[in-house]
Amino acid sequence: MALITCPECRKKISETAAQCPQCGYHLTPEKAAKIKQADGTARGIGCLVILGLVLAVAMCSRGNDSKPSDATNQSPSVSNDSPSASLTPGEHTIASDKLFGCTDRDEFEKIIGFAVEKDSDAFGKELATGMLSGQCVMFSAGETVFLSDTAMFSGLIQVRRKGETLAYWTNLEAISK
Ligand SMILES: [Zn+2]
User: What are 78-105's pLDDT values in tens digits?
Assistant: First the structure.
């Protein structure tokens, strides 16, 4: 026994019922079969419509950035961006603490190399040396940086801290959430 939609009151009724318990609509097996078929089609169309709406909403939300009402909740929407979308030039936010960058790319890769080798002594020593010489800096979570260059093949990016002229090499993960 399946449920069908009453054509009169749109309530779900049994396809075997002789009449709708809600509005008294008289049901025959032929009518029930037709309604059942229509119900199935409607459900299929409904799915397509919903899918279409989801796509439309997704596309609209991308193009809505200029809407004044969206200006206040711009920062949460930025965090929803995919990593590839966050690689646009301009302002970015540092994703977490414990991230650092170096003006010299070789220096940065050298320090990262120690981290990969899990040689924390060498890592700490090299990072401290880099920071003392002003070559390397620790970023803080939420800090604003400007993306100035990317070396996608190596997963490295070059960012500039707000108000500073030096650019630092760091990991792509630093600005992608
Ligand atoms: Zn009815």
Answer: 444 444 445 788 899 998 888 999 999 9
Residue 85 and residue 9 share a domain: no
Contact 162, 146 (CB under 8 A): yes
Length of the chain: 177
Closest CA relative to residue 138, chosen from 128, 125, 149, 151: 128
- CA of 25 relative to ligand 1 center, distance in Å: 5
Q: How far is the CA of 51 from the centre of ligand 1 (A)?
A: 29
Question: How far does Cα 130 stand from its chain's mean position?
Answer: 34
Same domain flag for 57 and 132: no
Residues 25 and 80 occupy one common structural domain: no
Instruction: Tally the domains of the chain.
Output: 2
4 CA to centre of ligand 1 in angstroms: 10
Distance from the alpha carbon of residue 27 to the mean position of ligand 1, in angstroms: 9
Distance 19 CA to ligand 1 centre (A): 8
